[in-house]
Amino acid sequence: MKLWRNFITFIAVTFFVCAGVFHAPVQALDFNTVLQASPRMVAAETNRRNAADDLLTTEFGQKIDINNSDIRDFRELKGFYPKLASIIIQNAPYEQVEDVLNIPGLSESQKERLQANLDNFTANPQSSVFNEGDERYNAGIY
């Protein structure tokens, strides 16, 4: 048993010594070299736009969009997550923020909560980027 332990120790020490001696330093990629090598690639990339990024330049980035935000965005508002947030998402789309007050079946306390937080919402047109499938309920963030 002692011989086996000594053998494993020898192999481990040999491995770490070799790893320290024979490693090659990592070279960082110089972005300017890449730009000079393929200018067409960079020009093509600057023309692409992401619909989600476009929305972030609007109120969507600062407020909760009742037509596009997923259920997790409502967590920062007390009393919204998960029940009231689910109700809001299920009844979308909304033309204006005040339309959430007309959701059928809301209790008085839920209406009061909504009324008190109308300034935290915005109502942009629905975007397929955020509404495909059930991504508003499960955004895949774990």
Measured distance between first and last alpha carbons:
45 Å
Low-pLDDT segments: none
Query: Mean pLDDT score, rounded?
Result: 79
Question: How are the strands ordered across the major sheet?
Answer: 1-2
Strand content: under 5%
How do the SSEs run, as a string of H and E?
HHHHEHHEH
Which geometry do the CA atoms define?
elongated
Number of strands: 2
Helical fraction? 40-55%
SS summary, helix count: 7
Q: How does the helix and strand content classify structurally?
A: mainly alpha
Biggest sheet character: 2 strands, parallel
Cα Rg: 27 Å
Brief digest:
Helices cover 44% and strands 3% of the residues. By secondary structure, the protein is mainly alpha-helical.
Please supply descriptive tags for the structure shown above:
single chain; 142 residues; mainly alpha; two-stranded parallel sheet; 44% helix
Describe this structure as you would to a colleague.
The chain has helices at 2-21, 31-37, 39-46, 51-56, 83-90, 108-116, 128-131, and strands at residues 64-65, 121-122. The protein has 142 residues and is an all-alpha fold. Strands 1-2 form a two-stranded parallel ribbon. The protein is elongated and about 80 Å long. The two termini are 45 Å apart.
What is the secondary structure topology, with strand pairs?
Blueprint: H1 2-21, H2 31-37, H3 39-46, H4 51-56, E1 64-65, H5 83-90, H6 108-116, E2 121-122, H7 128-131
Parallel strand pairs: 1-2
